[in-house]
Amino acid sequence: MPELIVYLEPTKSTPLQQCLNNILEKVAPEYYLSTATKYPVHISVTGFFTVDTMADVDFIKDTYHNILTSKFPSGEHTPSTIFINSAPLLVSTPAQGVQHQQQEEEGEDRKSHALSSKHLLLPVEIPKEHHERLMKCAQIINNHYYNNGKGNMMIRSKRIDHISLAYWDEPNATEFETNQWLQWSNGSQVGIMIQDIINRLKDLLDDDTDKYIATNLTAWDIVLYERTFKGTHIGERHRFKEIARWIATI
C-alpha cells in the first residue's frame, strides 16, 4: 500500500533551501547521525499515512490541488511571510528508559537517573490563513474516508511549526546505540552544534541584529510524497517519490 506524507519545504535551489540542506545533510551528520538526517529539509504538514489504491492517491492529490490553488477571497489580507527562528531550540522529549549512574554528593551510594532525550529544532511560524488551509485539506480527506468506512486511512495533521535538525526515533537501535545518543544529546557537543548552526544561518538574516529569517511564501512548496524505501538502520536515508508539488501562494 502506498505510504504518503505531505511536507512544506523550501523551494529547490533557493538560498534558503541550499543553506538548510547543507546544515541537515553535511553539518548535522558530522555531529551525530540522528533520525533527522534520514529526511530532506522539511516542515511536517502530516504524519505518514497509507492508502489502499492509486485511486486514493489521485483523490488526495486532487483534494490538495483544488484547495491549494484556489484564491483567497478578494480584498482579504493574507500574510505572506514565514518566519524561521535563527536560534535552534533544544527541547526535552520523554525519557527512553536508558539509565546512567551518577555519584551522589554525599556517601558512596549511586542513584539511577533517566536521561531525557532531546529534539533540536528550528521554530517556524507560518501565516494562520495558510495553516487553516492545510488543515482543511486533511479534514476533507478524513471526512471522505470516514463516511466511506475507511477510518484506517485518516490523515494525522502536524503542528507545522518547526524544522527538525536532530532527534532520536530508532526502534531498531540497540540499547547501547540509544544510550550513546542520550549521552551525546545531554552533553556539551550539542551546544557546539547549535552555535555552528547559528553562524551558518547568519547569511540569511537581513540584519545582524535580526533573530528571525523572514521568507516569502513563494520561496516554499507544499509537496505530496510517497515513501518508497524506509531506512531502518541508523543513518540510512528514507527514499521518496514526488507525487505533486504546489507553490505556497497567496
What oligomeric state best describes the polypeptide chains here? single chain
What string, H for helix and E for strand, traces the elements in order? EHEEHEEEEEHEHHEEE
Radius of gyration from the CA trace?
20 Å
By CATH, the topology is Cyclic Phosphodiesterase, Chain: A
Largest sheet report: 5 strands, antiparallel
The CATH superfamily is Cyclic phosphodiesterase
What's the overall average pLDDT, rounded? 89
- Which segments are poorly predicted (pLDDT under 50) over 5 or more consecutive residues? 97-113
Which word captures the global form?
globular
Number of strands: 12
Q: Percent of residues in beta strands?
A: 25-35%
Fraction of residues in H or I helices: 25-40%
Structural class: alpha+beta
**What's the number of domains?**
1
Q: How many helical elements?
A: 5
CATH hierarchy: architecture: Alpha-Beta Complex
**Alpha-carbon distance between the termini?**
34 Å
Instruction: Please write the CATH class name.
Output: Alpha Beta
Q: How would you characterize this protein structure?
A:
- The protein is of the alpha+beta class and 250 residues long.
- It is 30% helix and 28% strand.
- It starts with a strand and ends with a strand.
- Mean pLDDT is 89; it is low at 97-113.
- It is built from 5 helices and 12 strands.
- It has one domain (3-100, 111-247): Cyclic phosphodiesterase (Cyclic Phosphodiesterase, Chain: A).
- Helix 1 runs antiparallel to helix 5 and helix 2 packs antiparallel against helix 3.
- Strands 1, 2, 3, 11 and 12 form a 5-stranded antiparallel beta sheet that branches.
